[in-house]
């Protein structure tokens, strides 16, 4: 059995998102049914809606930064009850048995995780549809507890933009004494600055946009480096333990490499695809610098982050929009005209 849910979908790469009704499963014993309050707008939603990565199956209902209240639970659920404030991020299932899954790294599941949208449920074969919708039904193991003390509408971006930058900060053991740089001040970038600062690191921003410096300092940056200014780039040589590169499109990464220290790491979280222009190995060989990638974060780590945000009163800087304005929001996101995350008020759907 299924139930009909209202949402917003893209039907092709070049048509606007529009109202769409679709079916969600009736709750299974381990399921939590969530009435969605707010959904963040991630650049990945735009990439998927427009088939930038070449693997979108239409129609697609984007949205993987979801916060809402529990309206029903399956018979086997004891971790959540009706009325709880909860979140869902980019993952709704995985095999739960492979080594990465057993190590709380569901995002690296050897058998492929099930994404919140544009994926297929492993049990009933139904398509998954995301958070640009009224409600969602998710297995309790993939539902997160959201601290009640935070501004609820500013929490959703923690579930993707936050965890995607938190995971590398933790993996590379960032703390007091660390020097971290963030490339690009958008949704991911602004969370990276807040989180690295809260962990006690000295934080720099590389931005191509001169107008963002004041915001960067307010968010917790100690330095702002204009990436289009060669003199500023050269002055930053041998500084950073970790660079988190959030830029969504092809860009020349070579100028950033010499700014890493001996053994420093540049981790890609934005670009999905080839590094163009090609990356010279010279800065890697001469100072044993590393280049890496990182994908969102596991459920345990995401809960750790939500709890950390609750304790440190960290949320996203947001602009709340109506559902009908999503297409305009995508155009503005492409122009970096958002400070620093759009969040859809689902009551407007
Ligand atoms: P966003 O809000 O649009 O921010 C991207 C920022 O990158 C911009 O604000 C801009 O900052 C900078 N930028 C530099 N060159 C750019 C260009 N040619 N076009 C657009 N922006 C450019 O995007 P986001 O939501 O933070 O997402 C960033 C990327 O991460 C996306 O590609 C998204 O798909 C990906 N992502 C990956 C994961 C993962 O698990 N690895 C998870 C979530 C998202 P400045 O103006 O400061 O330069
Ligand atoms: Zn995302
Ligand atoms: Zn697995």
From TrEMBL:
Residues 11-24 have a biased composition (Basic and acidic residues). This is NAD binding domain of 6-phosphogluconate dehydrogenase family protein. Residues 1-24 are annotated as: Disordered. Gene3D superfamilies: Medium-chain alcohol dehydrogenases, catalytic domain (3.90.180.10), NAD(P)-binding Rossmann-like Domain (3.40.50.720). Belongs to the zinc-containing alcohol dehydrogenase family. Pfam families: ADH_N, ADH_zinc_N. The keyword Phosphoprotein does not apply. Keywords: Metal-binding, Oxidoreductase, Zinc. Residues 10-344 form the Enoyl reductase (ER) domain. InterPro entries: ADH-like_C, ADH-like_N, ADH_Zn_CS, CAD-like, D-isomer_DH_CS1, ER, GroES-like_sf, NAD(P)-bd_dom_sf. Its cofactor is Zn(2+). GO terms for molecular function: alcohol dehydrogenase (NADP+) activity; zinc ion binding.
